[in-house]
Amino acid sequence: MGEKVQVTFEPVGRTVDCEQGETLIDVARRAGVHINASCGGSGVCGKCRIHIEHGRVDGEKSEKISSSDFTKGVRLACSSTVTGNVTVRIPLSSSMQKGGLSDGVIGRHRALEHHFNIEELRREGIFSPPVEKVALELPPPSLTDNMADAGRIVQGLKNQYDEHGLIISLAVLRKIRKALREKDFNVTVTLARPVHPRGKTHVVNIQSGNWVNRNFGLAVDIGTTTVWGQLIDLNTGMILANAGDYNGQISYGEDVISRIIYAEKPKGAELMQELVVSTINNTIARLLVEADIDGDEIDSITIAANTTMTHLFLTLEPHNIRRSPYVPVSTFFAPIRATDLGLQLSSHAIALVYPAISSYVGGDIVAGVMGSGMYRTNKLTLYIDIGTNAEIVIGSREWLVCAACSAGPAFEGGGITFGMRAADGAITDFSIDPDTFEPMNITIGRKPPVGICGSGLLIIVATLFEKGIIDQRGRFKRDLAANRIREGKSGFEYVLVWQDEAGIDSDIVINEVDISNFIRAKAAIYAGVKTLVEEVGLSITDLEQIILAGAFGSYIDLDSAMTVGLLPEFDPAKILYVGNGSLMGARMSELSNHIRQDVVEVVQRMTSFELSEVANFKEQYVASLFLPHTDISLFPLVGMRLQAVSAGKS
């Protein structure tokens, strides 16, 4: 990132810190300054004209600006990057009529990123990889010392490392004789620690010479859409490579129910397993190439996934996961040889699969609870992974409760007329002039707009609501005089982008059906949180910390999420984002056998609620089908902003 500099926006006199290299339109949006721009920041519409009064910015001359205006300091905010302290004046034609700002503008708070810190494990004394390599220097046999080769290994481990109660696999026994004699009885032994505290340590590999510095593991998250992997140095805890790929099962359905139905067909389960294993193997191959490591050097792999993905990966019949009373085949899984699962690793590599809680709260959420450290904190914490299915966990080190609710695909672009996944051209940020109704759209990659991603949808709905353009039910006010608000095929709609400024052959709109689908999705999540809190005799105000996980959590604008009632009103400084919690938990288990052992105890004390069976959930859901909620007292700050907007228009 560049050095910190300041941008001052006139005529309102607002100054904001930013990084060198940021575009003025990004800085403006973060500062709550509206600049008309409907083309996503691609430079097509030419509406984001600004005047540089002091300082300078970088950027090529646009065909939308005449040579004389360019000489006078006129620029496009979308194509001007900050190089130093600068003062920018926003002309009336580019800004809101009241000088570029409106009262009560929605802020721009993101969750604070919580990065995995290997030093935390060291400080807590739990950095202890479950697979360890130790070097042995053994005396060669003689007529007076003719102990068997295996016995010599056991004795050496006892004398040099105080290891007791070891089990040597048959595969290792077959390699011992040759390995001992290749380097004059100097060998490296790979030890696999037990998951259960009273279990036995297994000798899983032996190599001639000293290989203690070459101990590597894999962490894998099997997502419904994407498989992610990391290659880890188990001695240092460093991530050596990252890779991901679309889950090969996706061509048989984008959701878990579709894949369960296919798995019920003859040979269906076998095909599902082959597809996901192929994806994992391809991901592993890319990791090995990136890190320049041989596959035989991988000693362990930890895998986390939701309950359905776990069943399909292990070729367990998932049939009853989708049928009441929603019973999986198993929630716990013993360590497995990686090769037995079809993974292209050495025969000594051990695979650990994260346990699940229930059919719809799987190992991915358990991994997130472990990786975030939620189970070790005294703070009453809400952990939430927002996706097609939202998984919710509430508790602390004393107790944990969990539930899952179906939010639908709106946050991933599904069920929205111009919805799409986060990719170049997706509208990801938005502002509106409440007087002229002109938008400021910002897209990923500053490409011409082609659709709306989940984070953009959230901000659009929140902004339309807070500016009084839609009501609590998500309906457009019918008495607004603006050419961007019109009646379309799916009710009234707002034109975000005209066709000639878009990257597709049509206007891009958001309509009342889209907003209704969004409201249902956010209602399911908020109702799930409120129901779960109340089922344990608490209220949302008792929460001390919120942890967000999943891809959507990294982009979510917290102020907008509270404005629409997706999240409860909460201090943004107490909201953390952990990214892919499933992958983080898998990585931590690769580095700490204590965490592997804790998992069993944590799962056993997590109480799972089936929300469809909780009477209060339906009531909470219906009450949440409004913006932000039927009970506005639950969102006092939103209520105050709405009153301010209403007073300003009266």
Question: What is the radius of gyration?
Answer: 29 Å
> Helical percent range?
25-40%
How many helical elements? 17
Strand order of the largest sheet: 8-29-28-19-20-21-30
- The residue ranges in which pLDDT falls below 50 over 5 or more consecutive positions are 97-105
Query: Helix/strand-derived class?
Result: alpha/beta
Outline the biggest β-sheet: 7 strands, mixed
Number of strands: 30
| Measured distance between first and last alpha carbons | 45 Å
Mean pLDDT: 91
Globular, elongated, flat, extended or rod-shaped: what is the shape? globular
Report the β-strand fraction as a percent range.
15-25%
How would you describe the overall organization of this protein?
β20 and β21 (400-406) form a beta hairpin. The longest helix has 24 residues, at 268-291. The chain has 650 residues and is an alpha/beta fold. The strands form seven sheets. Strands 8-29-28-19-20-21-30 form a seven-stranded mixed β-sheet, sandwiched between helices. α6 crosses α7, α9 crosses α14 and α14 (581-591) packs across α15. It starts with a strand and ends with a helix. It is built from 17 helices and 30 strands. It is globular.
